[in-house]
Write a structure and sequence with these properties.
With 642 residues, the chain is α/β, with parallel strands linked by helices. 33% of the residues lie in helices and 18% in strands.
């Protein structure tokens, strides 16, 4: 499929963007603690410009010294940051991309412990339970903040940035003024619609005045706050129209939700690309300036349709641009089979962003480390044992560095437990990721062998300089009475279709594997119960994914039994004991599915160490349970060390 509309240029204000592929603003914690952009920041943005994105948006950048939301947030409240922004802009311009920068005051979502200043908002309304109650920002301070937006835009212009984006969404400062839910002021900034829009209007006017009127200005707005009493899509359409007609903005970037509903801001894998399309279309009908849509886009097929139909003008590929900076180039040249898809796992990007750590990615641990992946000083023979995500990524990374790579996989199919994990509800995109890893590894020159067990004799025959053990883990089987005779089925065998189960199934183990097994079974009409020793079921599942998971549990009337220690297995169920000593039974099931965890499989370690001078044990072979982020991260570290 060709994508002619996505590769057509578009004008935003005075600037022509070469295509419709956008990198939206996303916190990455690559900036220096002094607010300047780092060498890692430059490499990150440059890689996406090189990959063909037409518009690169630098992450939310602090305009006001008292409102820094994280230790590694870029800042433009000082002239000292300008040179670092210029370096990033120049690096992106070298590949033909245009550069925008998002200007932000975090408001009630800020970090007073970091800044030493209290949080501020339109009114004293906390963002969420447990968060600090912000102070209602004074009228005098509002006008100081307005000046700071204009000053930051001037600095961006001096740095060679092509346009700026005012953040008016997600419950940050400007958003708290726009929404009736959070604005309870009785001065000129509260009350009627135009009063609530006064702050963004004055910010835009200040930017225009300080940049000579020729720097394009976009605004990022919520299509919906997704909370009762908050901004609806009808409100958002009126906001967009006002921003164009009364404020003269040059473009609208449509996002969704406040942080109480992060599942709309960074949607998990169960959510399909373009899920915001109808909301964006409503806003597009209200304006004539270009509209940027965002919403879990991975491949560009639906993006092409939206733009071709006039329902949006540009498409932001957020976490997909983290997963693979080469998306536009691969789409242009017809190599989408090599695309590393965002799988929506939310394991490396969002948690690290909130923790103040550099983000990473399960399918692209090179994010922010692009400059590290260089040709090796000497080509070596490398054997990778295990064809899961860690092994496949290690094979690719070693091969692109110039090593001679052979991967050995004992089974007849590549992908390991990652492939099995693609079977449950909403996890099908994991199959796409595995296929991509296979294609990329082979294209890089790695030899992938299946149905090949790595024996000591074989390893000695291959005579590698380095061995990477990515042998994963095996299901944990504990010595609990009755387990060895109850006829249990492992979750892995059930998912792969190796073992049938009856209509009524008890899943023992309430971690991610067990819970996804439950979803798989319940969706197919099985009556399912799940029992877990911990007090919380799905404790290792990200909050955004848990919301959808537990909705599935409710819809299918899944029996949940947390805080219960299994003491006896039977063919039709178990006996258990609660923390207070209460004993109970769950019986009458047709099948028992075991998902009690995993145990590392590093049996070849000693053999490998006797054969090769360098041996690396990665992923779950090193520590179980693990996940794909840890596996591919270990794989990259190993590849860089050879």
């Amino acid at each position: 499929m060709k994508f002619p509309t996505m590769f057509s240029p578009i004008r935003i204000g005075t600037v022509t963007v070469p295509n419709r592929f956008v990198v939206p603003p996303m916190g990455n914690n690559f900036a220096n603690t002094d607010g300047t952009l780092s060498d890692r920041s430059l490499a990150y943005y440059q890689a996406r410009a090189k990959g063909g994105f037409g518009l690169i948006t630098i992450e939310s950048t602090v305009v006001y010294q008292e409102a820094k939301g994280g230790p590694r947030k870029p800042c433009l409240f000082s002239d000292e940051s300008v040179e670092s922004f210029r370096a990033v802009a120049d690096a992106c311009h070298a590949y033909g991309a245009k550069v925008s920068i998002q200007l932000q005051h975090a408001g009630p979502e800020g970090n007073s412990a970091l800044t030493g200043y209290p949080l501020k908002a339109a009114s004293a309304v906390p963002a969420a339970q447990g968060r600090e109650i912000p102070e209602a920002v004074s009228n005098e301070e509002i006008y100081r903040i307005i000046e700071c937006y204009g000053d930051a835009a001037r600095r961006a212009q001096e740095a060679g940035i092509d346009m700026v984006e005012v953040h008016c969404a997600h419950g940050y400062l400007v958003s708290t003024f726009i929404s009736q839910r959070t604005n309870h002021r009785t001065d000129e900034f509260g009350g009627c619609f135009e009063n609530r829009m006064r702050l963004p209007r004055l910010i835009i006017e200040n930017i225009r005045r300080k940049t000579g009127g020729n720097l394009p200005i976009l605004c990022r707005i919520n299509a919906s706050d997704e909370v009762e009493g908050g901004q609806t899509v009808q409100d958002a359409a009126a906001v967009a129209a006002y921003l164009e007609q009364e404020c003269g903005v040059d473009g609208i970037h449509v996002t969704r939700a406040v942080h109480l509903h992060d599942e709309f801001m960074w949607a998990p894998g169960i959510t399909h690309g373009g899920f915001n399309a109808d909301l964006v279309s409503e806003i597009k009908r209200a304006v004539s300036v270009p509209v940027i849509a965002v919403g879990r886009f991975t491949e560009p097929q639906y993006a092409e349709l939206l733009v071709k139909q006039g329902r949006a003008d540009l498409i932001a590929f957020g976490r997909q641009s983290i997963a693979d900076p080469e998306l536009p180039n691969k789409a242009r040249t017809g190599h989408l089979e090599e695309l590393s898809p965002c799988i929506g796992c939310l394991l490396g990007c969002v948690p690290n962003m909130f923790a103040g750590k550099p983000i990473t990615c399960a399918v692209n641990p090179c994010v922010g480390r692009e400059a590290e992946l260089k040709p090796a000083a000497q080509s070596k023979r490398v054997v990778v044992v295990g064809g899961g995500p860690g092994g496949l990524y290690a094979a690719w990374a070693c091969a692109v560095r110039g090593h001679q790579v052979i991967l050995l996989e004992k089974s007849g199919e590549l992908g390991g437990n990652f492939r099995i994990a693609s079977y449950p509800t909403g996890k099908g995109q994991l199959s796409d990721a595995i296929r991509s890893m296979i294609v990329r590894a082979e294209k890089a020159g790695a030899l992938l062998r299946v149905n090949t067990e790595a024996t000591e004799d074989m390893l000695r025959t291959l005579a590698p300089d380095a061995i990477i053990l990515a042998t994963g883990s095996n299901p944990l089987v504990l010595p609990i009475p009755g387990l060895d005779t109850c006829g249990y089925v492992t979750a892995q065998d059930m998912l792969e279709g190796k073992a049938p189960v009856g209509r009524k199934v008890l899943v023992v183990g309430g971690g991610m594997v067990g819970c996804e097994a439950v979803e798989f079974l319940a969706e197919r009409g099985h009556e399912v119960g799940i029992i877990e020793m911990k007090d919380v079921i799905a404790s290792d599942v990200t909050p955004e994914n848990r919301r959808y998971m537990f909705e599935n549990f409710r819809n299918h009337q899944v029996l949940l039994m947390p805080g219960a220690k299994v003491g006896q297995f039977y063919a039709d169920g178990v006996d258990y004991t609660l923390a207070d000593g209460t004993a109970g039974s769950l019986r009458g099931y047709d099948s028992v599915v075991l998902a009690m965890g995993s145990r590392s499989n590093a049996a070849l370690k000693e053999v490998a160490e006797a054969v090769a001078s360098q041996v690396f044990v990665i992923g779950e072979a090193a520590k179980a349970p693990g996940n794909a982020v840890l596996a591919t991260g270990d794989a990259l570290d190993a590849a860089l060390a050879i």
